[in-house]
Structures are given as structure tokens and as C-alpha cells.
Design brief:
- This protein has 433 residues and is mainly α.
- It is 64% helix and 5% strand.
- Helix 2 packs antiparallel against helix 3, helix 2 packs across helix 6 and helix 9 runs antiparallel to helix 10.
- The protein starts with a helix and ends with a helix.
Length: 433
């Protein structure tokens, strides 16, 4: 279930009340621009600004007849304004109102999402510094590789969200374009200065050129950005699912008192939040595809994009708002088990030192192929027979020709894996908030 606070914060942006308020403001701004050109008398403009209003029930009633939402809206407004309403929507087309208001709504939604990302980044930064030197095994292909720290894992996620923050800000700028250019974008019945006036007062940029609509690549970039962010959330959620597996057990979602994991098995503590987030990311990628398919339209426009956007705009932004809130809380309350990390680190009995041995042999004068063959021979013996890597290195005569016991002891310690952790943290966090 999506928490109420999330729905109220983002869903209100997509309410009928907010949408019609945006339409009304745009219509009034168009009239103000005409007034500055002396094409609407001061008296009529005063009447419009004082009386312009709408009634949602009346709009819906009129739309049953007109089958056109903007026309229904204009008729409702006219009932409040009276004769001066003849100037409302003068020279404009429906998409002038729809696309410009859509830009305002997406801009508002972007601001919420940007704040969400920043809040999540703050949590990741806290967890990164908390576990800066908490050692754990790194895994490639799901197999033990070399040691890392849990803090480095968190720093990776932080840096990815930093890039997502940049993408979200860029996407906000991209969709913050309006158009008041008339039926096919030629300004045939109004002036470009009217568009400039309206966009300036809405905090938008005028689209340099438009047809009856703003080209949909503007919006496709926005929804693709949402999908990328959702995929990052899936990546970070999938990590928790893997770390929480019984065989790994290095971290797990917080499990509250009285919580139920399984209706059949009382012992279960399942990663339900991270699984939920992985599933929801699929929806965001689907919305991105729908937005991409909105780009090709017939000639100067058709209406096939409209029905898509009425669904994906509120759904995608509300959903990502929810996902960012949930993943933030998941990582904030994440239970981390350093003892289990230490245990798993030793599970391969020192085999993670194989590259260090390989490089040490090369430094002694062996070719890479010779060093690799010697090291792999000992490693595979340990892997297959469950032997300790360091002990077998010391016993191996081929290795012993090049490395002393003391050198092997020194090489097969974990400290050198973490010598640049501070450097990496400075790269990631200095200058980033």
C-alpha cells in the first residue's frame, strides 16, 4: 500500500483542482498580455481578473455535451465572467493551455522528486561513513572476489544517486517549456510576445518552435529519467535481497515486532520492501517506453499522446515519489551484520589473495603467464579440497622459489585492500551534499 503522506504530497499536484487552476492562470495571463498590447480594454481585463473562476462539477457536466475538456472549462469560466469572457482563449488553441499547464505540473512534480533524491542521498552518506571500514567480501558473478567495505558499497550507491539528481534537474529544465503559438504553431492569431509573457510569469521557457504541441521528445527525456532512477532503486533493492539471503546474511531489512514474514512459516523474515521496489521499477520502465512512443505523431499533431500522458504522468511521478521514500527508509533502518561479513570473508580460506600473489610473483621476474599458472595451481587445489590458501602457498615448492614465508604472510593480509578508502571517499563526497 502507498502511504497517505506520499499520495497527498505528490497526488495533489495531479488533482483536478490544481490542473484547472493552472489552466485558469494561463488564460488570465494571455489576457494580461493582450491588455498590455491594448487589445483588451482595462475594464474588460479587470472584470476577467476579478471574476474568472471555474466549477469542476459544471465542467464535467458541460464536457458530457462537448466531449472536449478545454471547451467545457472555457464555458464554465465564461459563466462566471460574463460578456468580457469573449476575450478568454482568444487566438489560442487547446494545446496551448494543455501543454503549458503540463509543463507546470511536471515542474512541480520534479521539485518533489529532487527533494526525495536529496533525502535519500543523505541517508546513503550517513551509512557510508558509518561503515567506511566495515570489511566484507566483494563479489563478481556472485562469486567471492576481493575485499571491499560496506561503506564503499554505500558510497557507490550515493554517487549513482548524485548522477540521478543531476539527471532529474536536467529533466526538470527540459520539460519546463511552454507554448502559446496557436493552432499549428505559427502565431497566426497572436504574437510571440504573448507567449513570452505567459512563460515568464509561469517560470517556463518558451519552446523555440512548436506545432500545435510541444514536441514529445521533451517529455520522453523526462520519463526516461524517471525510469533510470527507478532502475537505480531496483539495483539497490536487489543488493539487499541478495545480502539478506540465508546463505549470505550480511544485511537485512528491518523486521518490526509483530511483523509477519509468511502465513505458513513463522520463522520467515522476507525482504518484502526490496522485492516490492524491484517490481515497481518495471512499471517505470514501461512508462518510459510509452513516452518514447509518443514522439512520432501525425504531421503537426494528433491526439494519440494525450491518453498516454493522462495515465503515465500522475502514475509515474507518484510511483517514483513513493519508491524514493520507501528505499530511503529501507536503507535508513537497514540492519547490518559486520560479524557475518567477517565470517563470509574468511569462507574462501584466503583465496581472495590470489591476485596479490600473482602480482608479487611478476615483481620477482616471472612472466604473467608463469605467475598465473603457479598461483592458479595452488588456488585450484585449495578450492577443490577446502584447504587454506596461505598454508598451501607456504608449502608449495614452486611458490617457495620466489616468495619467502614472511613475504607470503605479509602479502596475504587484508590491510592493503583498504588503503585508498579515504581517497575514494574524498572523491565521492567532497563538494557533494
Amino acid at each position: 500500500m502507498i502511504e497517505r503522506y506520499t499520495l497527498k504530497r505528490m497526488a495533489d499536484i495531479w488533482s483536478e483542482e490544481n490542473r484547472f487552476n493552472k489552466w485558469l492562470r494561463i488564460e488570465i495571463l494571455i489576457c494580461e498580455a493582450y491588455g498590455s498590447l491594448s487589445e483588451i480594454s482595462p475594464e474588460d481585463l479587470k472584470t476577467i481578473k476579478e471574476k474568472a473562476n471555474f466549477n469542476i462539477e459544471r465542467i464535467n457536466e458541460i464536457e458530457k455535451r462537448t466531449k472536449h475538456d478545454v471547451v467545457a472549462f472555457i464555458e464554465s469560466v465564461a459563466e462566471f465572467v460574463g460578456p468580457s469572457s469573449k476575450y478568454i482563449h482568444m487566438g489560442a488553441t487547446s494545446s496551448d493551455i494543455l501543454d503549458t499547464s503540463f509543463a507546470c505540473l511536471l515542474k512541480e512534480a520534479s521539485e518533489v522528486l529532487i527533494n526525495d533524491i536529496e533525502n535519500f542521498m543523505a541517508v546513503l552518506k550517513d551509512r557510508a561513513y558509518e561503515h567506511k571500514f566495515t570489511p566484507m567480501i566483494g563479489r563478481t558473478h556472485g562469486i567471492h572476489a576481493e575485499p571491499i567495505t560496506f561503506g564503499l558499497k554505500m558510497a557507490h550507491f550515493y554517487d549513482e544517486m548524485r548522477r540521478n539528481l543531476e539527471r532529474m534537474k536536467a529533466a526538470k529544465d527540459r520539460v519546463s517549456h511552454g507554448k502559446i503559438s496557436g493552432a499549428v504553431g505559427t502565431f497566426a492569431h497572436l504574437q510571440p510576445s504573448i507567449e513570452d509573457y505567459v512563460c515568464k510569469h509561469l517560470g517556463l521557457n518558451p519552446a523555440p518552435i512548436s506545432t500545435q504541441i510541444i514536441p514529445r521528445d521533451y517529455h520522453a527525456e523526462f520519463f526516461t529519467t524517471l525510469a533510470i532512477i527507478a532502475s537505480s532503486i531496483e539495483k539497490m533493492s536487489l543488493e539487499i535481497r541478495n545480502l539478506q539471503r540465508t546463505e549470505v546474511g550480511e544485511a537485512e531489512e528491518f523486521f518490526s515486532k509483530g511483523q509477519t514474514g509468511s502465513s505458513a512459516m513463522p520463522h520467515k523474515r522476507n525482504p518484502i520492501a526490496s522485492e516490492n521496489l524491484c517490481g515497481l521499477a518495471r512499471l517505470l520502465r514501461g512508462y518510459a517506453l510509452s513516452a518514447l512512443e509518443n514522439i512520432p505523431l501525425w504531421h503537426e499533431r494528433d491526439i494519440s499522446h494525450s491518453s498516454v500522458e493522462r495515465v503515465i504522468a500522475p502514475d509515474a511521478t507518484i510511483l517514483l515519489d513513493y519508491m524514493l521514500e520507501r528505499v530511503k527508509n529501507m536503507y535508513k533502518n537497514l540492519m547490518v551484520y559486520p560479524d557475518r561479513m567477517e565470517k563470509n570473508l574468511s569462507m574462501s580460506r584466503g583465496l581472495h589473495h590470489s591476485e596479490a600473489i600473482l602480482l608479487s610473483l611478476i615483481k620477482k621476474g616471472l612472466t604473467r603467464q608463469e605467475a598465473y599458472k603457479l598461483t592458479q595451481g595452488v588456488a585450484m587445489k585449495c578450492y577443490e579440497q577446502g584447504l587454506d590458501f596461505r598454508a598451501e602457498l607456504i608449502k608449495d615448492q614452486g611458490i617457495g622459489q620466489y616468495l619467502s614465508n614472511a613475504e607470503i604472510e605479509s602479502i596475504t593480509t587484508n590491510e592493503h585492500y583498504f588503503k585508498y578508502v579515504e581517497t575514494i571517499f574524498k572523491r565521492v563526497f567532497e563538494g557533494n551534499t
